[in-house]
Amino acid sequence: MSSPSDPSDAGAASARFPRDSVGLVTPQRMVFDAPLKLEGGKQLDRYELVYETYGTLNSDRSNAILVCHALSGDHHAAGYHTPEDRKPGWWDVCIGPGKPFDTRKFFVVSLNNLGGCKGSTGPNSINPETGVCFGPDFPIVTVGDWVNSQRRLGERLGIRQWAAVAGGSLGGMQVMQWAIHHSEAVRHALIIAATPKLSAQNIAFNEVARQAILSDPDFHEGRYQERGVIPRRGLMLARMLGHITYLSEDAMRERFGRELRAGRIQYGFDVEFQVESYLRHQGTSFVDRFDANTYLLMTKALDYFDPAQDFDGSLAEAFKASRSRFLVASFTSDWRFSSARSREIVNALMEVRKPVCYADIRSTQGHDDFLMPNPEYLAVLDAYMRRVAAEFAA
Amino acid sequence: MTSLRPDLEFISHWVQPRAHVLDLGCGDGTLLRHLQETRQVTGYGLEIDPDNVVKSVEAGIQVIQMDIDQGLDAFADQSFDYVILTQALQVVRHPDRLLAEMLRIGRKGIVTFPNFGYWRSRMQIAWRGRMPVSETLPNAWYDTPNIHLCTVKDFESLCREQGYRVLHRQVVDSAHHGNRLMSHLPNLLGEIALYSLTAAHRRGSSLE
After folding, report:
1. pLDDT tens figures, A38-52
2. Which of A84, A152, A372, B64 has the least CB density, counted as fewest CB within 10 Å?
3. Subunit contact B44:A383, Cβ cutoff 8 A
4. Which chain B residue lies closest to A376 (C-alpha atoms)?
5. First and final CA of chain B: distance in angstroms?
6. Chain B residues touching A350 at Cβ < 8 A
7. Cβ neighbours of residue B18 closer than 8 Å, sequence gap 6 or more
């Protein structure tokens, strides 16, 4: 079985890509003209979603996997956009021929969520009412809104039921939303490095990140684009702060320790320690590829997510009617969404006797481990996905 | 099914069809898979070892990666029909507390352990003056995971003290076969002991 994105068909240009890569991929775009009512009360009359697909949809459309992205992710989950690309998509360790989301068996769909800044309708899109970009007028979108827009995308692609919906972190929250409210369309829900809701500490970090952006003199109440500027410092600080929470203390110590860039202390406020240099690099490179208004929206979606709210605060009750089967995975070194938070999800599922597997993966990197080639992680994911594939394979 | 260890076969005879089961230390998932296929049970296996977790996922059971020694507080009272512990009572930190937890969470508990009262073990201590090493207890004293070994008599005395009722008892040899003589002198002739228990004060199980 070969697919259009199989490297063997993709021509000489992709010969340099690893054998287990999906190779060159081209983003696609879908326009939705039916209005989408948002949980916040507003609506989007018309919107576009950018997405990528890997592998081939089978004849009875039973092999599709939806991949949901995290805070700073997008539709580019696997493969390369150009032969010159040095880095593949964000979940390339999991998606490709022979990988857990094996593109020889599965048809993988990955989209950029509404409010994003990578091509789907968001703050940088033109507001049809004003003729200029939405900026801060783009409505607040929630995890529920994203899932509703993802359902429409699935319908348009002819997928009535996903073999699996998968995501890490904020992506895992979208998976939970799917499994709670639309489980008839989800055979397997893969919730990775997620949490049933943010803690006060999580929200606090988000708030500091938002304040960094909001208080940047170049922010101009979100209308920075009209003025031809970018709130660089704010967005950079937000990313630097976020990055601290994505890494474990051990990972930071191992990578940087107290190593000095110039070899000796300079008694000043320039970059001295390697970790400072690393964070500044993460911050500045983020400014070039991400949008401040989108960052604000994404952190709000995180803060608001609490699926138990509609069920008297009981997560178990929320899962009770679900018909999905679950894989939950956490990472021992993740302190942003710790293993204990994943266990809350697992305990709720067991309380209402739902089929669930749970792996607490030994790890060192922290929250970002869900993007890393950790052998234990990939082994569990692979074993589980072979179970999923066995259900539709002949 | 033919390759199933005979002690697991005994256990599956004690489990009612369609029961909800918790298997503590489910290993590669063999028992739960067998119970799913032959008894249509639902439920979960708890396992700490990463390789076994992967094998359990492959076996098609619902495996939850966690350390039993960290406690089972997350499980509600009487939320399972059976809580099963095979060949692991002797490796946990607090066997008495674990038994109590098993019978709190489950209507019935099923426990198997190597009987330290087995005559060969007695001989090795009495005549050779050495810690017993056998097929059932293969490790040397310094690298054994078995930190709480007991005899059939010890176990039954704990059950009496705690007010647990023994529903079934079976002893077998290391090939997991039992016979009449063994059931008459379990503490001397049984190498592996299998018990089905209930907390006496909690009668009226829906499965009885």
Report:
1. 999 999 999 999 999
2. A84
3. no
4. B50
5. 26
6. 44, 64, 74-75
7. B39, B40, B41, B42
User: Measured between alpha carbons, how far is B104 from A321 in angstroms, rounded to an integer?
Assistant: 27
Query: What are the residue numbers of the active site of A?
Result: 169, 334, 367
Please, where are the H alpha helices in chain A?
A: 143-156, 170-181, 200-214, 232-246, 249-255, 274-289, 292-304, 315-320, 339-351, 375-390
Please give, rounded to a whole number of angstroms, the shortest distance from the CA of B74 to a CA of chain A: 7
Residue A357 contacts B, CB cutoff 8 Å:
yes
Which residues of chain B are within 8 Å of residue A358 when distances are taken between CB atoms?
63-66
Count of C-beta atoms within a 10 Å radius of residue A96: 30
Q: Which residues of chain B have pLDDT under 70?
A: 1-4, 201-208
Q: Which residue of A has its CA nearest to B58?
A: A383
Local structure of B64: helix, strand or coil: strand
Q: How many CB pairs under 8 A join A and B?
A: 48
Q: Which region, left, alpha or beta, applies to residue B176 given φ > 0 means left and ψ of -120 to 50 means alpha? A: left
pLDDT value of residue A8: 46
Neighbours of A269 (CB within 10 A): 7
> Residue A10: its pLDDT value, please?
46
Task: Find chain A residues with C-beta within 8 A of B42's C-beta.
Answer: 353
Distances in Å between the alpha carbon of A383 and those of A98, A104, B59, B143?
12, 16, 9, 32
Query: Quick one: how many helices (H) and strands (E) in chain A?
Result: 10, 10
Cα torsion at A171, A172, A173, A174 (round to 10°)? 60
DSSP string, A222-258: GTTTTTT---HHHHHHHHHHHHHHHS-HHHHHHHTTT
Q: Does B42 touch chain A (CB under 8 A)?
A: yes
* Residue A113 C-beta-side C-alpha neighbours within 13 Å: 27
Whether the ipTM is more than 0.90: the answer is yes
pLDDT tens figures, B101-125: 999 999 999 999 999 999 999 999 9
- DSSP label at residue A126: B
Contact criterion met (CB below 8 Å) for A52 and A24: no
